[in-house]
Description:
The structure is a single chain. This protein has helices at about 5-30, 40-50, 55-75, 80-95, 110-125, 130-135, 145-175. The model is unreliable at about 175-180 (pLDDT under 50). The protein is mostly helical. It is elongated and about 65 Å long. Helix 1 (about 5-30) packs across helix 5 (about 110-125), helix 3 (about 55-75) packs across helix 4 and helix 4 (about 80-95) runs parallel beside helix 7 (about 145-175).
Amino acid sequence: MTCYDRSDLGLLLLRLGTGGVLAAHGSQKLFGWFGGGGIEGTGAAMEAMGYSPGRQSATMAGLAEAGGGALLALGLATPAAGAAAAGAMAGATAVHAPNGFFAAGGGYEYAASLALTAAGLAITGPGRLSLDHALGHAVNRGWMVPAALAVTGAATAVVIGLRNRRVREASEFGQETLFDAE
């Protein structure tokens, strides 16, 4: 009989909680569940936030959150699942960053917490109470952690960089002239 230790139980709780929240959050984007906007509504919101094209951005964010969250909760393909969820939450962090840190003021506190927890699970692994463990870690190899984080980090940097450029350009065109140049 296998005896599980506190870290296995702790990782299970972290995976279930974080993965469940992420899966629900992604389901809002993909299906409109739990009061979400679905692909159409979320796509329009993403476009307004500078993520273009909006529908594609909503689909990718929804898949990363719902898929990454579900896989984290199951403890399956943990490096890829954690990296995907962390990348999606980094994108949300970029949107909320101008509002400061605390979520009460519209800040990035919540998104950053989910991103860091997902990345931490990708690095730490799922523990023995997981499908990865039951399947002999076939999709949870040591080399997969840096590969998943590097690929996701690079893709996320490109997406956020393009979004930031769009937001900057939109604000430049929307600014009023303060002084008449003569």
